[in-house]
Amino acid sequence: MQTISQDGSGNNAVQITGDGNSVTISCGGIVLFLQAKHSLKREPRSDLDLLRPETRLLKILGRESEMASLTAWVDDPRPVLARGIIGRAGSGKTRLAIELCDVAAEHGWRAGFLDSGDLQAFVEAQRTAMWPQHTPILVVVDYAARRARALNAWLQSLARRADPARPRLRLLLLERHATPGEGWWEELSRLHGSDDSLYDLLEPSEPMSLPPISAIEQRRALLGGVMNAWCRLNGKPVMVPPAAGADPQFDHRLTDPLLAAEPLHLLMAGLVAAKHGLATLLSLGRLDLAIELACWERDRLTRLASDRGINEKLLLHLVACITLCRGVERSELRALIDEERAVLPYERGIERDPLAEALVNALPAQGEHGSLRYNGLQPDIIGETFGLLVLTTNPDLDQMALIDRCRERAPARTAQQLVLTIQDFARPAAELVTSTPSLRRPEARLPQAWLGEGNPALHWLDHLVAGTGDLERLMTISDQMPRYTLLLGERAMLILHRITEVVRELAAARPDAFRPDLAM
Q1: C-alpha distances in angstroms, 124 versus 112, 121, 140?
Q2: Phi, psi (degrees; rounded to nearest 5) at 49
Q3: Tens digits of per-residue pLDDT, 52-100?
Q4: What is the DSSP letter of 13?
C-alpha cells in the first residue's frame, strides 16, 4: 500500500511516498528513488545469491556495538545528521545499513538506499521547500564518493535553514575509503564562505571505520551458516567447519586478521569448501576464491546458453558488459544486445529475443519507479573478476572499443566499476592470492597477472579518462580514486592532469565565461 506525506503545496513542498519496496522523495518535479533493500528478502536462486547482502542469509554477527551506535544516531533529537562509514570491500557495510533500515522502518521511518534520480537537481528544488515534519527519513548512499559534490550542496542547504524548517533526516554515507584532507570526504565537508554550520550535521566529524569481527566463534558461525545454506540450495548433505579444538591448524587460520576484516572472504571460502571439500577451507586467497566463483558463474551461464540454444560466448560477453556498466534498464537491454552482436563475429545463436530472455533469467533484477533494471554480477569482487575473465580472454574483442561503447551507455557507472576493480586488485599480493592454488583450474593462475600494473582495468580507465571531456565527470572520477598505494596515487595524479587539460581547453574556448581559477 502506498502512503504519501506532504507539507506545503505545489512546487514548494517535498513529498515522500512509499509502497513497502521503495521510497520516493519528490520536489518541484524532481524525483529521488530509494530502494528499500530491507524489504526485498527472498529465497536465493543461485550460489552468488547466497553472498548478496540483500538476501540476508544469516543473522548479522559481530556488529552489536555498531548497531547500537547507529540506532542512537537515528534516535538523536537533532533534525538532520549525516554519518560516514568506511570499510574495505566485503567488510559488511551494506549489510549493516540494510539492518539499520529495517530497525528504522519498524519505528516509523521511511528508509532506503539512494537508487536513482538527479540528486543535484533535487538539492536545488528543495532549497526553500517545506519538508513533511512527521515523516522521518533515513537515506543510505552507497559508494558515496561519486555523489560527494551533490551531497555537499544538500548539507549546505540543510545547515542554513532555521530548525523548524528542517526535515527529520539521516544521511548514512558508505564508502570503501576516506583520506583526511583530500578526496570525497574533503569535498563533502567543504565550506562555502564563513558559515561552518555544516559541521554541526556531521556526527561524528570524520567517517567511522568498520572494525573487524574479532570473535573467532563468530567467524566460525559465518562459515558454518553459508556452508549449510549452499548444501540445502544444492541438495547436498550438510557440511560444517571443524569444531573448536578439533583441527588446530584450521583454528590458527581462522585467526587471520584479513578474515576478521572481510566477512565476505569467509562466506566465499565457505561456499567453495561446501562444494570442493573441507581441505580447501581457508586455504585460498581472496582472488583465488573470486576466480573460482566467477568460473562457477561462467559455467552456469554456459549451461543456460546450451539449454536455450544461444551463443554461449555472446551471452558471457553480454553479462560482462552489463556488469561493466553496473546494470542496464530493461528499456535499453535490446539495444545493448544489438550493438554488441554487431561488432562480434558470431553467427549462430545470436537472435535478439532469446538472448534477452536468457539475460532476464540470468541477472538479478530490481524494480525502479515502475520499470525494471537488470544488475550486473555481484558481489563486486566476483563481478569484477568475471568481467576480467571473460573480456580479457576473448580474442574476438576490441577491448578499447568496448570501453568507448560503455562510456556512451553509462559513463559514470562504467568509470565507477573500473575504479572499484582497480582498488580490489591494488592490494599486496599476499592479501589476495596463494602461491599454489589448491584448485586446479587453468584460470586459477590468472589473478596473479592482474595484480598491480598488470590489471587491464587500469588501461581501460586510462582510455576512458583520455576520451572524456566532461569536467564534472572527471572530477567525480577523481573523488572516487583512493591514494593509499603508489599505484593508485599515480593514477589519481594522471586524472588530475587530465582535469587540468580540460580546464585549459574550456578556458581557451570561452575566456569570458570560464575562469580556470574557479573550476577546481
Answers
A1: 21, 5, 20
A2: -60, -30
A3: 998 898 889 889 999 999 999 999 999 999 999 999 889 999 999 999 9
A4: B
Q: Cβ(89)–Cβ(425) under 8 Å?
A: no
d(CA 124, CA 221): 48
pLDDT for position 127:
81
pTM of the entire structure?
Answer: 0.90
Q: Is the Cβ–Cβ distance between 106 and 228 less than 8 Å? A: no
CATH placement of domain 3-209: 3.40.50
The mean pLDDT of 268-272, rounded to a whole number, is 94
- The C-alpha cell at 86 is 568506511
* Calpha distance 498→489 (Å, rounded): 14
Element (H, E) at 31: strand 30-35
Q: Could you give the strand order of the β-sheet that contains 110-116, starting from the edge strand earlier in sequence?
A: 3-6, 15-18, 22-27, 30-35, 110-116, 137-141, 169-175, 80-86, 208-209
Q: What is the pLDDT of residue 257?
A: 81
In sequence order, the 6+-apart residues with CB closer than 8 A to the CB of 352 are 334, 337, 338, 341
Structure confidence by residue, pLDDT tens digits, 170-199: 999 999 988 777 788 998 998 877 678 899
Task: Please give the mean pLDDT across all residues of the chain.
Answer: 87
In which band, very low, low, confident or very high, does the pLDDT at 261 lie, cut at 50, 70 and 90?
confident
Bridge partners of 31, per DSSP, are 26
For the record, the C-alpha cell of 391 comes out as 573480456
Residue with cell 521511511: 110
Side by side, the strands of the sheet bearing 371-374 are 328-329, 371-374, 365-368
Of the chain, the end-to-end C-alpha distance in Å amounts to 46
Domain with CATH 3.40.50 in the chain: 3-209
Q: Are 326 and 366 in contact (CB under 8 A)?
A: no
Angstrom distance (rounded) from CA 170 to CA 168: 7
DSSP H or E run through 226: helix 216-233
What's the helix, strand, coil split of the chain in %, to 5?
55, 10, 35
Alpha-helical segments (H) within 328-410: 330-343, 352-362, 380-392, 399-409
